[in-house]
Amino acid sequence: MLRSFELLKRKLEKAEKKGEDSVKIKLKKKGIRVDNENSLSQREFVDVKDYMKVITCKSGKLVFNEDVVYVYPLERNPTWGALAPIVELPETQEIFVRGDRVWITIGGKRFRVYIKNFEPEKTINRLVIKSGAQIDYSKPQSEAEIDGWRLYFKLPLISGDVEMTATKIANIPRLCKIVNPVLAARLLMMVLRPSVVAIIGPAGSGKTTLLSSLLKEIIAFFPHLRISVIEQVREIYLGDVSNIAYSKAGPNTPITMLIRQSMRYERPDILVLGELRGEEIWSWVEAGRLGIAALTTYHSPDAKKAVFSMAELMRQSIHDATVETVMQLIDCIIVMKKFLIGGAIRREVEGVYFTHDDKLVALYKRGIHASEERFKSLFPERVMVGDFNVVYRFLKRKIQESDF
Ligand SMILES: Nc1ncnc2c1ncn2[C@@H]1O[C@H](COP(=O)(O)OP(=O)(O)OP(=O)(O)O)[C@@H](O)[C@H]1O
Ligand SMILES: [Mg+2]
């Protein structure tokens, strides 16, 4: 196995040097390829594509090819066993194991995983013991934490196979580490107005991180507020606070249904949609109409483009939705940017816009804030948690305190 790695690596290096998009390797024996529909075909050659990647880490190697990852563990990891190379990869967000089938999520993308010498029962039993999960036949599903991962186990008696879901718990930075104190207080006020807020920006620009950070401060200052978090991929962890309800979409539980159910039964003050992707935009903005603060993240390079493409999403179900419809239903757009400076990634809030009379009004743009009068003019006398002036003063004071 290791020899074929060396071969693959050399071929890749050669292809990279020549700038080739694709290079074929002739197999010694005919290989069998199983595609997504489980049909088999025999192949004499394999394509080493430009997006095929080999990653070597301490505990093993990972080979990426389209939507498949092959894992070759090199050491016996006492906790994670053959899953160690996946856990070691910093970008891994989720690992799903069901019987001997494994999937992972990396940067929001799902991959099928094939692991050499994988013993699922042994690996999962060891993780149950090491994480101290309380699981037995009277309680066949259980949650636990280990090494910065949240684990969820199910015994085969529930679903016919042993199951584990592992989700990486990301560290949420304090809001003042991301934005300056003036903006921190204003963004929190914006949520509490209540507003429909979309945090937009390119992939990996820190949208989810800013969203989590805003929520973390709100929970710390106003613990009585009820928050519902609805996601496709679980990324937002605000701790086990009793006033938070988490839901994760699945094949039989689409996002739109979860949002509607959440508004009806959980009665949140703040509704959080992890990422806006499609026609669920309508149920998300509906929250705003009901006086609930509605927050989400959305892939888009700038505020104008975000408004255009959101109108497009709305038109998927209501044909006459326009840019003006978006402007009327969404109150605030926060624009994140990602820069690469001297090899280091910097993420920051580039602008904050308020929608007013079908226009985008800048509240903040590259270091410049709108005046205090302008900011106040956007608010009613009372916000979700009390009088505007009292709450705004309280937040500004808290933010000045050193422990913020
Ligand atoms: N302010 C920050 N300080 C340090 N690290 C950060 C910060 N913001 C984001 N990151 C890191 O950058 C990575 C991407 O951040 P995040 O997931 O928040 O981006 P995103 O815009 O939501 O990405 P996606 O488009 O994939 O949803 C994460 O690993 C996160 O921990
Ligand atoms: Mg995100």
What is the element layout, followed by pairings?
Layout: H1 2-18, E1 22-34, E2 40-49, E3 53-57, E4 60-65, E5 68-73, H2 84-88, E6 92-98, E7 101-106, E8 109-115, H3 120-131, E9 141-146, E10 149-154, H4 156-159, E11 163-168, H5 175-178, H6 181-192, E12 196-201, H7 207-221, E13 227-231, E14 244-248, H8 255-266, E15 270-273, H9 281-289, E16 293-299, H10 303-315, H11 323-329, E17 332-341, E18 344-356, E19 359-365, E20 368-369, H12 372-377, E21 382-383, E22 386-387, H13 388-400
Bound molecules: adenosine-5'-triphosphate and magnesium ion.
List keywords for this structure.
binds magnesium ion, 13 helices, alpha/beta, 404 residues, 9-stranded mixed β-sheet, binds adenosine-5'-triphosphate, 22 strands
Plain-language structure description:
- The longest helix has 17 residues, at 2-18.
- By secondary structure, this protein is an alpha/beta fold.
- The mean pLDDT is 87.
- It is globular and about 70 Å long.
- It has a 9-stranded mixed β-sheet with strand order 3-4-5-8-7-6-11-10-9. A 9-stranded mixed β-sheet has the order 14-13-15-16-12-17-18-19-20, sandwiched between helices. Strands 1-2 form a two-stranded antiparallel sheet.
- The chain contains 13 helices and 22 strands.
- Helix 6 runs antiparallel to helix 13 and helix 8 runs parallel beside helix 9 (281-289).
- The protein has helices at residues 2-18, 84-88, 120-131, 156-159, 175-178, 181-192, 207-221, 255-266, 281-289, 303-315, 323-329, 372-377, 388-400, and strands at 22-34, 40-49, 53-57, 60-65, 68-73, 92-98, 101-106, 109-115, 141-146, 149-154, 163-168, 196-201, 227-231, 244-248, 270-273, 293-299, 332-341, 344-356, 359-365, 368-369, 382-383, 386-387.
- The structure holds adenosine-5'-triphosphate and magnesium ion.
- Residues 207-208, 275, 297 line the site of magnesium ion.
